[in-house]
YitT family protein (Heliomicrobium gestii), 203 residues
Amino acid sequence: MKNLLNILLSCLLTGAGIILLRHAHLVTGGTPGLALSLSYLFGASFSVVYLAINIPFYLLSIRYMGRSFTLKTLLASLLLSGITAVDRLLPDFLLPDWAGALLGGVLVGIGLSYLFINGSSLGGVNILVVFFHQRFGWDPGKSTFVMDSLVVLSSLYSVGLLKGLFSILSVVILSFIISRAKGRIVLRRRQEILGETASPPVS
């Protein structure tokens, strides 16, 4: 139950960050960033596009990451989709580019970090990040930065150069936060492997 509540809190933080990025008309990295870009481009719902993009990655997750991780990731994806859909009920507002990049990057970075710590992800690129970390020991923050930057660069057509630069700033912020959480992510993975139940220490 505690694990599920942590995943819910992580999705709330990530969803809030994505909503702020959307109101600054910025993108972020990973599947959420790609879904934001496509939603701007085609005027489609972020929630629907996000879930559709994730389908191929669930198959990869089942094959290499196991049933528990895949189910938690599917749960997190559905929660995020529902949370971001609430944005339609909020009054329309605009955020300055710097505020969207800073606040959105911090919230998404914290949310993703706690998802990784609790053995989950938001699907898509996040699955690849966790896979590379477990298989090759690659720093999840650096992997996130590289792949997220590629997503942002591919989104320049829909948001423009200036907003693209601020979007990269949000990626730098969230990648730094994930890198800082690397130790707890590694510890959590070791506990899962060893079948331990102790919670990771608060750093």
Observations:
- Residues 196-203 have pLDDT under 50 and may be disordered.
- Residues 2-194 form one domain.
- The longest helix spans residues 2-23.
